[in-house]
Amino acid sequence: NAGVMQNPRHLVRRRGQEARLRCSPMKGHSHVYWYRQLPEEGLKFMVYLQKENIIDESGMPKERFSAEFPKEGPSILRIQQVVRGDSAAYFCASSPGLGEKLFFGSGTQLSVL
Amino acid sequence: KNQVEQSPQSLIILEGKNCTLQCNYTVSPFSNLRWYKQDTGRGPVSLTIMTFSENTKSNGRYTATLDADTKQSSLHITASQLSDSASYICVVSSINTNAGKSTFGDGTTLTVKP
């Protein structure tokens, strides 16, 4: 049973470009969470999704950021018109149900030049 | 406001020594507390979960304690190994929120030297 898969592991973008981060949850997991981790800081919750639904996006910036978890395929975190401050590690986690243990992916390191 | 404070921020110990990491929280109403280990460049991995009624839980050389009255937890690592070098994150969940939106501490960075 493969773990949570995130790709790419490293993503380099220039200011103003778009970044698309992908997350495939563990098999059987229908709950997906995205977190951002700045250097030397802890993980900060961004968004919680279930298949085809955004359940809680209270941690997501209001502009430029969006997330989806379609019926088929991975969850996508999309950042439009990236700025240098978006440079961070973005982690995805999945769980089989509400309140259950989170399983994290290895993250995508986004660098904005 | 729900908060999780971890101390120390960083710690350096020699291989074979023991250490204790601290976690204080103000999350309420309390549901559970997890300790995660995050290796450099990797995602966190769960070590233990503590619920309200549990005082101590062990996972190999890792032992977590919980005092729900004082809202404190500790993670004790026995006979440290080089592979224990990582960030240890305390995560506290409220019964009012799902596990994914739990409150994360900033972590303690442990370095084990030979």
Overview of this protein structure:
- The complex is a heterodimer of chains A (113) and B (114).
- With 113 residues, chain A is an all-beta fold.
- Chain A has strands at residues 5-7, 10-13, 19-24, 31-37, 43-50, 53-56, 65-68, 75-79, 88-95, 103-104, 108-112.
- In chain A, the strands form 2 sheets. In chain A, strands 2, 4, 5, 6, 9, 10 and 11 form a 7-stranded mixed sheet that branches.
- In chain A, a hairpin with a 5-residue loop joins strand 4 (31-37) and strand 5.
- Chain A is globular.
- The relative contact order of chain A is 0.34.
- Chain B is an all-beta fold.
- Chain B has strands spanning 4-7, 10-14, 19-25, 30-38, 45-51, 56-59, 62-67, 72-77, 86-94, 103-104, 108-113.
- In chain B, strands 2, 4, 5, 9, 10 and 11 form a 6-stranded mixed sheet that branches.
- The N and C termini of chain B lie far apart (41 Å).
- At the A-B interface, strand 4, strand 5, strand 9 and strand 10 of A face strand 5 of B.
Major sheet details of chain A: 7 strands, mixed
Largest β sheet strand count, sense and barrel closure of chain B: 6 strands, mixed
Question: What is the helix content of chain B?
Answer: under 10%
Order of helices and strands of chain B: EEEEEEEEEEE
Order of helices and strands of chain A: EEEEEEEEEEE
> For the CA atoms, what is the radius of gyration of chain B?
13 Å
Number of helices of chain B: 0
**Ranges of chain A with pLDDT <50 over ≥5 residues?**
none
Question: Count of helices of chain A?
Answer: 0
Largest interface (CB within 8 Å) is between: A-B, 28 and 20 residues
State the end-to-end CA separation of chain B.
Answer: 41 Å
- What is the count of β-strands of chain B? 11
Principal-axes shape call of chain A = globular
Structural class computed from helices and strand pairing of chain B: mainly beta
What is the structural class of chain A? mainly beta
Kindly report the average pLDDT value of chain B. Answer: 92
Distance between the termini of chain A: 36 Å
Oligomer: heterodimer
Strand content of chain B: over 45%
Residues in helix, % of chain A: under 10%
